[in-house]
Amino acid sequence: MPLIQLDNMAAPSIRLRLTARDVALYALGVGAGENDLDLVYEGLGPVILPTFYTALAFRLARPLLRRVRGDPARAMFGEASVQITGLASPGTVLTIARSVSTYAIGPLGIAQLNFQIGEVAEVSFQIYFPGEGEPEAARPPRRPRASPPSRPPDWRVALETRLDQALIYRLSGDLNPLHVDPAAAARSPEVTGGRPILHGLCTLGFVGRAVLRGTGCPPSALRSLSARFSRPVWPGDALLVQGWEGQPSLRVTTVARPDEDVLTAVIAETKAC
């Protein structure tokens, strides 16, 4: 059944208070550990990773997806972006506005979810629904695409994911069984390769950490990050992120499969640090 056609349909805004627990749990979910006490310990903040707002937005996405009436069993994460517009800390109360639009590219239905998180961040997702495109629906708006330079990267960061990484990350709100249940993953081999895959937003969080490590910048320096999810990442994979000075484009592969981009159209913007 095609997605219900919506054009920037708003959902009720939500007010919530950021907690140190949520901030630290997210950081653990994207690989922070004993060497990142400022990200996981309330005695030092904890400092909020900018990609945290994608997990926060996803927790509030379910009512929007119900409005488009797509089959949740067929839903796939297509793209995600976060833009940082202000600063927050645990204890901050945020008003979060939400809206949804629907598009199609041929038989592919696309739900565009947008979140305005106070004066702190803007988050957008594209959720793909194969076979549920409305023939008369508009195509999604284009966003800037950039390719990495052909010259060697100026920095390379490899970050290993844990075998239980998805079990930790799901505690931030994404409970899709494809990420933890071998039986569910086996029923969708075209998406998972037959075994549980890492959450796309978890991969994005690792990329955000890699950018900070590669540039030597603090979390407050990351202004935006966007990507398209192209290939699966499995728990235990080591992600390889490559960057170029003066260029926003990144390349994201795995150490074991360096010729396969797991994220594409990856753009990260940082301020001088």
Walk me through the structure.
Helix content is 22%, strand content 31%. It is an alpha+beta fold. It folds into 2 domains: 9-130, Hotdog Thioesterase (Thiol Ester Dehydrase, Chain A); 155-270, Hotdog Thioesterase (Thiol Ester Dehydrase, Chain A, Roll). Strands 1-3-4-5-2-7-10-9-8-6 form a 10-stranded antiparallel β-sheet, covered by helices on one side. A hairpin with a 3-residue loop joins strand 4 (108-117) and strand 5.
Task: Please sum up the structure shown.
The protein is α+β, with helices and mostly antiparallel strands. It folds into two domains: 9-130, Hotdog Thioesterase (Thiol Ester Dehydrase, Chain A, Roll), CATH 3.10.129; 155-270, Thiol Ester Dehydrase, Chain A, CATH 3.10.129.10. Helices cover 22% and strands 31% of the residues.
